[in-house]
Amino acid sequence: MANKKVNKTKLLERNRDPYHGIKVFIGFFMSIVFIVPIIWMLFVSVKPNGFTTNQPLEWFIPPFTLFNYWNLIAESLIIRWLFNSFIVAVITTILTLIITSLAAFAISKMKFRFRKSIFLFFLIGLMIPGEATIIPLYQIVKSMDMIDTYAGLILPMIASPLGVIILKSFYDGVPKELIESAIMDGCSYFKLYYKIVLPLAKPAMAAICIFTFIGSWNNFLWPYLSTLSETLYTLPVGIPVFNSAYTQAYVLPMTANAVASIPVIIAFFIFEKQIVRGISFTGIKG
Predict the structure, then answer these.
(1) Among 82, 91, 86, 228, which residue's Cα sits nearest to residue 146?
(2) What are the residue boundaries of the structural domains of the chain, listed by start?
(3) C-alpha–C-alpha distance, residues 186 and 248, integer Å
(4) What pLDDT score was predicted for residue 143?
(5) What is the CATH number of domain 76-244?
(6) Rounded to whole angstroms, how far apart are CA atoms 129 and 81?
(7) What's the angle, vertex CA 92, arms to CA 136 and CA 227, rounded to 5?
(8) Is 264 in a helix, a strand, or coil?
(9) Residue 136: C-alpha distances to residues 215, 227, 230 (Å)
(10) Mean pLDDT in each 10-residue stretch from start to end of the chain (286 residues)?
C-alpha cells in the first residue's frame, strides 16, 4: 500500500509539472548526444586496420575484428599506461582522503590559535586556478629530484582545498553533545576522529573519493610536464602521443581510445549510485 501511495504521489507531481515533457525530451536528447560518440568509437575500434570510407553507415556494418586490440597491446605501452593511471589515481585518492579528513577534523573540532586563518587559507587556495601554480610546483618537484618518478606524479596532486572545506562543513554538523560526552569518557582526539566522526562522514568521504579519483584519472597537464619516459606516461598523456603517429588513420587511434574508456565506463555502471549521490551531496552540477 505504501508503495502504491508513493507511486501515485509521483504521478501527481509529474502531472502538475507543465514542463515535465520538455525536461524528459531534453534529457533524452542530451543522452543521445553523449552516447552516440561512444557507440561510434566502439564500432570503429573493431573495424579492420586501415579501413576507410566516405559513407558513415559503413562503420556500423561488418566486417569486424578484435585483432586491433591485440595489435595495439603488442605495438604500444597502453597496458603500462593503464597501470600507471590506476596506481596514480588510487594512491592519490587514498592520500587525499587521509590528509583532507585529518585537516578538516583539526580545523572543525580542535581549538588552537589561527584556526580561522588557516581555514581562510584553504578558501583562498580554492579560488586560485591550478594552472597558476604549475611553474612553482614544477620548480619545487625538480629541486627535490622527483621529476619522472611516481612520487612526482602523486604527491603534488594530493592537496585538495575543496575536500577540506566539504569535510569541515560536514564535521561542523556533528552534535557537540556527542563530542563532549566522548571526551568526558576519556576518548582521545584520534579515537574521536577514527571511531566517531569519520564513520559519520562516509557520504562526504565517498563524494571526495569519487571526484578525486576521476580528476586524477583524467589529469593531463601535470603528468605531461612531470614525466619524461614513456614507461611513466598515464593514459591522458600516452594516448595523444600514440595517436599522433596515426594522423590519417581512424581505426587504431579509436581502438586506443576504447581501451582507455572501457574501464571508466565499467566503473561508472558499477558505482553509478555512489557517483550520483556524490554529485547531489556536493551540489556540483555539470
Answers:
(1) 228
(2) 2-67, 76-244
(3) 70
(4) 93
(5) 1.10.3720.10
(6) 27
(7) 50
(8) helix
(9) 21, 16, 24
(10) 52 62 86 88 86 80 86 86 93 93 88 84 83 89 92 90 86 81 80 84 84 88 91 90 76 85 79 68 48
